């Protein structure tokens, strides 16, 4: 028996970052948007937990217990008191360390795949709790669609959305460390004299204009409301991202931002035809390694 689960990548259409908390985290107002670009994780019976991976970035994917898919399998097995025997294969399409939560997506997919393979019938709420133990972005990969993430991003509130939005993702060479980007955010705030602690920076909230644009299915209004507090720190660490953003905008994107902690850049297009043209132009611009046109919102991790 084999079980294959498809799981979406995400873009943060709003990423508001609060000040540094005593526990080392930041409060977030994180509007997740799931897109059709995604990974597939296949589970089949095995001895212990083993991992394989194929895809453009496969060489960058760890195949040991640091991989969230392996950790997810072990966590689910421990929760139910069963032996974690599974072979997991990741067909990787989401850029690695690209700010699109590819590792988190694989963790969510492994939870669903192992649950089905082992016949555990775990309640969805329990899967969400286990996902939150794995990482802040893992629960959203289970939920999909569009949702507001609070706390570290793991407390989710599904949001209404109408219609389909068309995106292009420009993949950079190499990755960016999410902790390093958050540290740079704190450093830039200190440098600007605003302070970086949660006593200095207000707790962020979702932008009403952005929520209305999603609910109305209005890509032009959404483009105007896109924000990411980690964009400046990502560009500070990788200045070439500014050229990628410029190239996509000049190619006709109506909105552009760094995706999450980067270095992938996300571009909102007015329609599917425009998205295809923007992707072609970006690939020809030399400012990115690859560009992918896709759409959303997409469902969360599902058996395919």
Number of helices: 10
Number of strands: 12
- Helical fraction: 25-40%
**What structural class do helix, strand and pairing data support?**
alpha+beta
Strand-residue proportion: 25-35%
Determine the mean pLDDT. 96
Q: How many whole angstroms does the radius of gyration measure?
A: 19 Å
Order of helices and strands: EEEHEHHHEEEHHHEHHEEHEE
Low-pLDDT segments: none
Main pleated sheet: 8 strands, mixed
Coarse morphology: globular
Whole-Å distance between the termini?
14 Å
Question: Can you characterise this structure?
Answer:
Helices cover 36% and strands 28% of the residues. The radius of gyration is 19 Å and the shape is globular. The protein is an alpha+beta fold and 304 residues long. Strands 1, 2, 3, 4, 5, 6, 8 and 12 form an 8-stranded mixed β-sheet that branches. The protein contains 10 helices and 12 strands.
